[in-house]
Specification:
The structure is a single chain. The longest helix is centred in the first third of the chain and has 22 residues. By secondary structure, this protein is an alpha+beta fold. The strands form 4 sheets. The chain has a 6-stranded antiparallel sheet with strand order 8-7-17-16-13-14, with no helix packed on it. The two termini are about 40 Å apart. It contains 4 helices and 17 strands. Helices cover about 25% and strands about 35% of the residues. It is elongated.
């Protein structure tokens, strides 16, 4: 896999950079997005029946290209982070936290070229209070999703007998299991006493399996932890939880 990536990068340097200089083509955001997706694929890890991908991306580009993005500096990194999350969801990849993208001006990078360094970061990594941190020289654009204390999610719970009910989550953790101590109690022998947990994490809705005996599935795939989006189906024993909506406040 890494050998193939090295070959790809060789041909990119051979064709893309010279052509960019020859035709003075402006670097496009979609090119950065594709490089982030490629970095996510190359650095992915397989463990416990799931594939975990990086959630931090340091993108280095030439200062001239950074200047060209000045008019969209307030949204570009955010849009790239959202695109990375969408890509991970589409491929059923697991994330330890919502993606973050840092755009950095580096004179060592040729105009039109891109260098991406991908890494893994835990959810408790501290960020600036307002979600942004700019270098004193103004050459670095950083975006991190701020902590959201009360995101609102609406779920529809379908019991094994077909009965349904709506649940509204206010951002506080909701545990699921047979024990009466859970926020959502399921009378099902296939469900562990403390089976899973729904929680807000930095603006995203996350489901965590609490090492249950029979496991949890999201959209038919066994999971231990996954970021959820609208339409996702969580299967716990014979109960199905459908994410109707997820909003951020």
């Amino acid at each position: 896999m890494r050998l193939l990536t090295a070959v790809e990068r060789f041909f990119e340097r051979l064709f893309e950079r010279p052509s960019a200089r020859l035709f003075r083509a402006r670097l496009q955001p979609v090119q950065i997005q594709r490089r982030i997706e490629r970095a996510m694929e190359v650095e992915r890890l397989s463990a416990a029946e799931r594939t975990i991908v990086p959630n931090r991306f340091r993108v280095s580009i030439n200062p001239a290209d950074m200047t060209a993005f000045a008019e969209m500096s307030g949204s570009l990194a955010a849009e790239l982070a959202d695109a990375a999350l969408t890509f991970a969801r589409a491929h059923r990849y697991a994330l330890t936290d919502r993606p973050r993208v840092d755009l950095v001006a580096d004179p060592r990078i040729q105009p039109g070229d891109i260098a991406v360094a991908a890494s893994f970061a835990d959810p408790d990594v501290s960020d600036a209070a307002d979600g942004r941190a700019d270098a004193p020289d103004g050459r670095t654009m950083v975006f991190s999703l701020p902590k959201v204390e009360t995101p609102l999610a609406v779920l529809r719970a379908i019991a094994p007998d077909g009965s349904q009910r709506e649940m509204r989550l206010d951002g506080r953790p909701l545990t699921i299991g047979r024990s009466s101590d859970n926020g959502l109690v399921l009378r099902d022998s296939r469900v562990s006493r403390f089976h899973g947990r729904l929680q807000a994490r930095r603006g995203a809705l996350v489901y965590v399996d609490l090492e249950s005996t029979n496991g949890s599935r999201v959209n038919g795939i066994p999971v231990t932890e996954v970021v959820l989006g609208e339409g996702d189906r969580i299967e716990v024993g014979g109960t199905v939880l459908i994410v109707e909506s997820v909003s951020q406040t």
